[in-house]
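Anyone else keep sequences and structure tokens together like this?

Example one:
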Amino acid sequence: MKAFDPEDPFTPVGVGLDEDPDEEAFSDMAWAVVEEYVRMGWGGDQIRRLFHSPFFQMAHQILLVKGEAFVEELAEKADRMRSEVHEQLRGAV
């Protein structure tokens, strides 16, 4: 195991906020999370589970603040995004 190095750019660092994010910020953060995981190949079902898992604290907090319908919409958008990319790739062949 590698020893902790404060200069290591890959060391995870938690950052606190001076105030709670507003609705728009929560929406932007949520979409950033979804987009990152969709790019790694995750689908809507996996996205749903991500937001329901307390292990993924930010995503879970977004679920608690924005609600189930919001997360469902994100999961559906994730599936649409994946479908569109797959269609584009099929057309490029």
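And example two:
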Amino acid sequence: MKEKREYKEHMGSEDWQRYRKERVEQANGICDACHWPLGGAPHVHHESYDNFGHEGFEDTQVLHSKCHERKHPDIKEVKEDD
């Protein structure tokens, strides 16, 4: 994973917020992992950090909270925008 400061800066940036909004819209309300309706606040999960800061469609998944938790079994509470 990227350095904590760099990660926090990017996740709080207007670029990330714009990307996140577009990515959620592309999902059409469906979880990329289980294909069920998202409901609630969708999470945008990084599948790869290779293009961090310049994410493409293939670098992230739009997930509902349960599928996002499954991606991070070692973390007790998963943040929305990981």
